[in-house]
Each structure stands twice: as structure tokens, then as C-alpha cells.
Amino acid sequence: QDHVCSLPKVPFRGAPCSDAAGSQVPYATIMKQVNSSLSGLLWDEVQKAPFYEYKDSVGQFHQVWFDDPHSISLKAAYVKSRGLRGIGMWNGNSLDYSREAVAEQQTQAMWQALTP
Fold first, then answer.
1. Which range marks the domain in which residue 28 is found?
2. pTM to 2 decimals?
């Protein structure tokens, strides 16, 4: 209920943001899973990022954090307002580049969000 997800201590594996804390999920999977998740779409006002929670087939609780066009646009606007020289994002190739109409719309919205 309080949306706190504890992570087990795992030895450092050689890179910040490694798979020690979790694993990467493709954006297409997130978009398909979020609406049927336990929590539905949630928003963290501190991180300015969406997340959701679900239980897998063996009852294990999971929390998935991601960026969407809204969170990306807030970050891009922050960069622009501070006169910074750019913004980066993690794995644009995880977007859904299939020819499905919804996927094309979601992918286009993500790329457009980078330009405030």
C-alpha cells in the first residue's frame, strides 16, 4: 500500500545501474502490462516518473519504473530552462518499432518529448 519496494543486497557487478537491482524491460512490454497491473499507472512526484506494481505467476511482487512522454518532457524542459547542453536517455532501442499503429504513436511521442 505504501509502494515501498525493498531490494536485496547483491554484490556490485562492475557497472552502475547494473542488473544487481533488477532487469530492463522493453517499453512495449511495459505498455502492455501497465493497464492490467495490480496498481495501474502510478506517479512519483519526487522522481517525476511513472511506475506500476504487479505480481508474477508465482506471487512475487515487482515494481517497474520507467519514463514516458510526460516524464521525458519534464526532464527535457528542465534541461532547457537551466541552459544545459543536452539530455540523454537509456536505450532508445527498447521502444516498440513494430508497425502497429499504437506502437508507432507511442514511439513517436517518446522521441518528440525530447524536444521541449
1. 19-114
2. 0.76
